[in-house]
Backbone:
């Protein structure tokens, strides 16, 4: 048995996660080769929602030092349970303003910014904590009413307001593609985000960076990489099937994160 900070897990857990992680990295590298890209350009963020803290200790032992969570309360509990480990935490789900205090305390990254009210709440709490937070602006590229995120034509105006929040470090854009077996429809979502990013590079206020594209989950990350993703959010391909429906975490998503 291995022990990290008092919680035991089996070596087979570590080996299983390491093997799955290696397989995902191989798939990322293959997608990059098809697109003529360097795999070093693509960051992998393991999405650990529903995975209990003891097993996440095994994931850490397997080489995962950054984890993504959709729900703040769940992420906060895991952060507290594993405070002895040098993990970084990304919040990748919709945020209510009353949760801004928690995010400001422990998160290193927030990938679902789509509201000035949330930006203001985060900035205010980050000032209290004397911290900064990397953020991605979430864009609803599929046009589905069930999904959060700004519509593409709202993003430029939204970006012009962000310099007011000095504690937020804008890194790029994030989206969830439509959940569809039609690859063309999925690819269209990713291309829309890439094209929007390219326009923002020229239009965004000074000091804001929109270089990064967070797009692609377990069911579509290879397509996302082919369309320019610099960050992919992969859960089930690493951690296995979940007991909880994805729709409880991602409105409009049905099993692809």
Residues:
């Amino acid at each position: 048995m291995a022990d990290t900070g008092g919680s035991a897990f089996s070596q087979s857990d570590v080996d299983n996660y390491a093997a799955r992680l290696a397989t995902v990295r191989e798939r990322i590298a293959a997608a990059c080769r098809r697109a003529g890209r360097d795999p070093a350009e693509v960051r992998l963020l393991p999405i650990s929602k529903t995975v209990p803290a003891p097993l996440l200790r095994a994931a850490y032992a397997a080489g995962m030092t950054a984890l993504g969570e959709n729900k703040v309360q769940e992420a906060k509990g895991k952060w507290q349970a594993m405070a002895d480990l040098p993990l970084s935490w990304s919040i990748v789900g919709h945020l209510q303003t009353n949760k801004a205090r928690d995010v400001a305390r422990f998160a290193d990254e927030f990938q679902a910014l789509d509201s000035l009210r949330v930006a203001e709440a985060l900035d205010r709490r980050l000032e209290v904590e004397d911290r900064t937070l990397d953020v991605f602006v979430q864009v609803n590229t599929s046009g589905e009413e069930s999904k959060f995120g700004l519509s593409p034509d709202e993003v430029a105006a939204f970006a012009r307001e962000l310099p007011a929040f000095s504690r937020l470090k804008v890194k790029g854009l994030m989206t969830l593609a439509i959940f569809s077996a039609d690859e063309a429809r999925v690819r269209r979502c990713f291309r829309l985000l890439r094209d929007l990013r390219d326009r923002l590079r020229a239009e965004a206020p000074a000091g804001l960076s929109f270089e990064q594209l967070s797009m692609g989950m377990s069911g579509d990350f290879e397509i996302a990489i082919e369309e320019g993703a610099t960050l992919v959010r992969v859960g089930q391909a690493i951690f296995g099937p979940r007991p909880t429906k994805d729709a409880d975490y991602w409105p409009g998503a049905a099993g692809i994160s």
